[in-house]
Amino acid sequence: MKPVKRKSAVDSPVKPPVKHRKTRQTRTAGGGFVDKLHAYRDHHAHALFSSLGRLVTTPFTSIMTIAVLAISISLASGFYITVINIQQLTANLENSNQISLFLKDDVSNETANHLTATIRKNPSVQAVKIITKEQALVEFKAYSGFGEAIDVLDKNPLPIVLQVLPKNTLQDKQELEALFKTVKNLNEVDYTQIDMQWVERLQSIVEVARFGTVLFSVMIGLGVLFIIGNTIRLELHSRRDEVMISKLIGATNAFIRRPLLYTGFWIGFISGVSAWFIVAILMLILREPVEKLSGLYEGDLHLIFLGFIDTLALLLASSLLGVFSSWAALLFQLRHTRPE
């Protein structure tokens, strides 16, 4: 038998090593900035809508909480609207806060007209109305009941009267007093009359209403803070096991806090929207009776509702109150919530 020759390693052809092409890595180890931004956006979107879903899964608790907050916010909003309508009413009453200037007997109509034009140039004056002697005599005969006695007189004893209507009588008392002193010292003026006590009372009523609105709104805001904060605290307590597991796998407090902050936002926002509808319904109910009452007194009072800017301010304030109260409650609770 012929011996079988074995092929040695030398005899076998050696294949050249395959050269692999070097590929450029387009991603860095931690991901690009755009990828991080997308991940951050997706996480916030998930937290936003998942927090809303949790409110929907507990309808009774959510409705009770939002109803209490909506009624509280509607009280503050209603008080604010009341003050606005009171200011509208007092704006009409300002017409009665006029300064009456009784001119001297020897002042002619031409001089009175010139004096009227001079007073109109004063920046504190809104309007000036002149009542001549003839007009005053006609009104006196019509309303006094002494028309026959006036006819006996040889000369018209009534003076020329200038009715000066100041600007902003309810906002600036010092400006009104300065105007009163200015017109009182005019050479053509014999006597000046104004009911300053009525003006002061009206100014005090408006100031008290404004201060009461601010104080009442602050108290309502504190109540909303405590209610939403307690709601978020209970929500965190019900999710304690979930929070513990998240902390064990390395989740930060900010990561755990984020969906609960969105829960507070939804509670505040929905409460603000509900409060707006409550106030709107109440205004619709009161609109017709108030306008009817105004018509009986020959007035033209129309109820003013929340405008576009006021509505945005209401929704923004209620939403911020929800977020801030949630953050304040979680800041304390998460520090004392640690895995055992």
Outline the structure in words.
This protein is an alpha+beta fold and 340 residues long. It folds into two domains: 42-91 and 202-336, no CATH class; 98-194, Alpha-Beta Plaits (2-Layer Sandwich), CATH 3.30.70.3040. Helix content is 66%, strand content 7%. It is built from ten helices and four strands. The protein has a four-stranded antiparallel sheet with strand order 2-3-1-4. The protein is elongated.
List descriptors.
single chain; 340 residues; alpha+beta; Alpha-Beta Plaits; 2 domains; four-stranded antiparallel β-sheet; 4 strands; elongated
Short overview:
This protein has 340 residues and is α+β, with helices and mostly antiparallel strands. It has helices at 33-57, 59-93, 109-120, 133-144, 147-152, 173-184, 196-238, 240-248, 253-296, 308-333, and strands spanning 99-103, 125-131, 161-166, 189-193. It has 2 domains: 42-91 and 202-336, no CATH class; 98-194, Alpha-Beta Plaits.
**Main sheet?**
4 strands, antiparallel
Radius of gyration: 39 Å
Helix content: 55-70%
Mean pLDDT: 78
Which geometry do the CA atoms define? elongated
Span between termini:
82 Å
User: Per DSSP, what share of the residues sits in E-state strands of 2 or more residues?
Assistant: 5-15%
Number of strands: 4
Q: Name the helix and strand elements from N-terminus to C-terminus, one letter apiece.
A: HHEHEHHEHEHHHH
How many H/I helical runs? Answer: 10
